[in-house]
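Hi V.,

You were right to ask for the full record rather than a summary. Here it is.
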Amino acid sequence: MEARVREEIVRACELFARRGWVANHDGNVSARLSPQRIVCTPGATAKSAVRANELVVTDAAGRQVSGRGKTFSEFALHLAVFKARADVGAVVHAHPPFATALGASGRELVTFLPEAVVSLGAKVPLVPLAAPGAAAVKALEAFVQTHDAVLVAGNGVWAWGDDVEQAVLRLELVEHLATIATHAQVWGGPQTLPQDMVTALLEARKKAFPRR
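Predicted structure:
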């Protein structure tokens, strides 16, 4: 299992780099190996350079137990998600341009495609800008229980899921929606879905993604 998870993390990093969703040392990926072990990308490493045998492993409290590098500076945010959501198996973070621009402009993303409501909920909220450290963790914690993806003002997109693949797909969908929403501004912006439709779709979401 661990070898597979490590390869999934590497593939996610390669995807982020290939699509231009990260630059320099941007972005990070983490996954549970067990309730007491977490594997993550090393800090100060370009995502295109991440290798499976160089990933960092910590205990549930974030204390490093193996790995050549060190944990990245935002690892406390990942730990906060894992602590709050026993059902979450992976957390990803990147700076995809359209979604990051939306968050940097101080706007949340209202979900305007029916399929996306099932995958992400009625909206992808905006986490307020906060100083790195305890303040940033506290700001994120307010949204973890009720959402699976968020925009963070000044800090891109965060998403989580059962595994790395699901977390990446959610982040990918956030960027896809933000791209469409940006293009739709030429025509007056995307239209919101009827509330009765949103309600029905949210019920479908509960059935599709039950909490463990």
